[in-house]
Amino acid sequence: MPSPLAGPTNAPPILTLTRSLTIRPFRTFDAPSLAHHANDKEMWLNGPDIVPFPFTLTSAHSYIARASDSRNWACSGASWTGPALPSMYAIASRDVCIGSIEFCPGEDIRARTAKIGYWVGREYWGKGIMTEVVGTFVGWVWRSFPKFVRIEAEVHDFNVGSGRVLRKVGFEHEGTLKWGIWKDGRLAGLEIWGLVRGSG
């Protein structure tokens, strides 16, 4: 039986989209492309501080190791009968990593909720790629994990593009936590977007 600490494999994509796009487990050879696309100040501003800037090749290897570690997967038991899974996946164009999408199961009283996060490299902005990726990924979550009734996303209030993606795939803007985040030495709002099973 493989160790949960096993590194990236050649496992097939979990999803195949149009335009030669796939969502698949990260692989070791993704590191250079990941470092190229993630080393962007605006990308860092739109994300959590756990993702560093500058984002180096070493950062990329650490990111892939974290993405490939299934020990913290919380969807075992009734909701998932297959093998342990990572919760972070590569977004790939012609099998070259251009971004990432993440699925985080809720805990305790939020166990019926999952949270998603995502990004794609700047050169792929404005092409409809994230709308297709997020919409397809959300469908996969609903099909694969029937216990979840809600998916949510948190967006920095200055990240207009991400909110636009969520609205296009059916999420509703449920409110903004005023001064909910501290990023790059300033306070900003944190938007809460939600999608309930059967509504989108």
Automatic annotation (TrEMBL):
Keywords assigned by UniProt, alphabetized: Acyltransferase, Transferase
First and last residue of the signal peptide: none
PROSITE patterns for this protein: GNAT
rRNA processing as UniProt keyword: no
MF annotations from Gene Ontology: acyltransferase activity, transferring groups other than amino-acyl groups
Domain N-acetyltransferase per the UniProt entry, residue ranges: 21-193
One Pfam family matching this protein: Acetyltransf_3
PANTHER family, sorted: ACETYLTRANSFERASE-RELATED, N-ACETYLTRANSFERASE DOMAIN-CONTAINING PROTEIN
Stated name of the protein: Acyl-CoA N-acyltransferase
Organism: Hyaloscypha bicolor E
Phylogenetic classification of the source organism: Eukaryota, Fungi, Dikarya, Ascomycota, Pezizomycotina
